[in-house]
Write a structure and sequence with these properties.
By secondary structure, this protein is an alpha/beta fold. The protein is built from seven helices and ten strands. A hairpin with a 2-residue loop joins strand 4 and strand 5 (76-77). The longest helix has 18 residues, at 174-191. The chain is globular, with a radius of gyration of 18 Å. Its EC number is 7.3.2.6. GO terms for molecular function: ABC-type tungstate transporter activity; ATP binding. It is found in: Cell membrane.
């Protein structure tokens, strides 16, 4: 079944700061984060441990509020997760008692969609992430890469314009990680989603992103935004790839 994708979303992060109170006093986790993501763009966020990547992700997803500033999705302030964003975490968060098909369909349970259309949509997504033939399998029978494909299909089920991904390939081996990266780019190109992807892996960011937001710490802030002007598919052996890798790495 063909899905109508009329483009991604526009995201604006406006002067976002985050403070936490601790026994040692106030901790400034983020300070003055500000950037925008254009419709259909693939943006990666990288930075050293402790720079606030996960905090920023949670604010972007509406899972916690900023102390100051705001996140705007298509012009509306994000205060909680909503149907216009699909979220994928490093942990798969699949329901072990449900099959692949049932896990993917979970996001559609509250949707006012005819049963036949739901079935067609779920099957399309299962096919899209390369899991045809595994529709009736349970998570315990799947590899880590397959579980993450299910999580991605479930996030896409509600047809969000924005896909938020937090270290989604961090728990799989290097070979599977590279395969999932290639598949994600194909899915992004086919669906036209806007993607915000958090990773600690500079090589992954350079391979995937249109732009890489490089964060520093104390407090978490943007050091530089690097545009990756290399045609896809990208090869790590290419000299341009290496130049961008060294540039981003030097900023961290």
């Amino acid at each position: 079944m063909a899905i109508d994708h009329s483009g991604g979303s526009t995201v604006r992060i406006e002067n976002v700061s985050k403070q936490y109170d601790s026994k040692q006093g106030t901790v400034q986790a983020l300070g003055g984060i500000e950037f925008s993501v254009e419709r259909g763009e693939f943006v990666c966020i990288v930075g050293p441990s402790g720079c606030g990547k996960t905090t920023l992700f949670r604010i972007l997803a509406g899972l916690e509020p900023p102390t100051d500033g705001e996140v705007l999705l298509n012009g509306s302030t994000v205060t909680e997760p909503n149907a216009d964003m699909g979220i994928v975490f490093q942990e798969y968060h699949l329901f072990p008692w449900q099959t692949v098909q049932e896990n993917v369909a979970f996001g559609l349970e509250k949707a006012d969609t005819p049963a036949d259309e739901k079935r067609q949509r779920v099957q399309h997504l299962v096919d899209l992430v390369g899991l045809e033939g595994f529709e009736d399998s349970y998570p315990k029978a799947l590899s880590g890469g397959m579980k993450q494909r299910v999580a991605l299909a479930r996030a896409l089920a509600i047809d969000p314009s924005l896909l938020l991904m937090d270290e989604p390939f961090g728990a799989v081996d290097a070979q599977t990680r590279e395969m999932l990266q290639d598949e994600l780019i194909e899915i992004w190109q086919e669906t036209g989603k806007t993607v915000l992807f958090v990773t600690h892996d500079v090589e992954e960011a350079v391979k995937l992103a249109d732009r890489v937001v490089v964060m520093g710490k104390n407090p978490g802030s943007i050091r530089e935004i690097v545009e990756i002007d290399v045609d896809r598919p990208r090869s790590r052996s290419d000299s341009e790839f290496g130049s961008y890798y060294e540039r981003v790495r030097s900023l961290i």
